[in-house]
Design a protein that fits this description.
This protein is α/β, with parallel strands linked by helices. Helix 1 (26-42) links the parallel strand 2 and strand 3 (47-58). The longest helix has 17 residues, at 26-42. The chain has helices spanning 26-42, 60-75, 87-95, and strands at residues 6-11, 14-21, 47-58, 79-83. It has a four-stranded mixed sheet, covered by helices on one side. It holds the Pfam family STAS_2. Residues 17-107 form the STAS domain.
């Protein structure tokens, strides 16, 4: 059984994402992420760092989720940055010619 995917915001402007990002988990996470984006806006935050170090496995659904969050953040005027992008997502992004779309922080 896959470990449950979890999104948390331990500090203002910092999120952590853990577990497995797949077709079974991303719909719920998409809603949770949009809720956190709205909360960030309500608190006048301008930047959010998302730590992906605890992702155990991810497929194209996980890639779509991260791209959706980027799009929502940019549409809201927020800067969303990912750190510790798992190798599986790096490969998928490269295969999809998305290398220059990602906003990556130094690990």
């Amino acid at each position: 059984m896959n470990p449950p995917a979890r999104l948390s915001a331990p500090d203002a402007g910092r999120w952590t994402l853990s577990g497995v990002l797949d077709f079974d988990t991303v719909a719920r996470l998409a809603v949770e992420g949009e809720t956190l984006l709205h909360t960030a806006l309500a608190h006048s935050q301008t930047e959010i760092l998302v730590d992906l170090a605890a992702i155990e496995r991810a497929n194209s659904a996980g890639l779509a989720l991260l791209l959706e969050w980027l799009d929502c953040a940019q549409a809201s005027g927020l800067r969303l940055t990912y750190t510790h992008l798992p190798e599986s997502l790096q490969r998928l992004a490269a295969l999809s010619n998305l290398g220059d779309v990602w906003l990556l922080a130094d690990a």
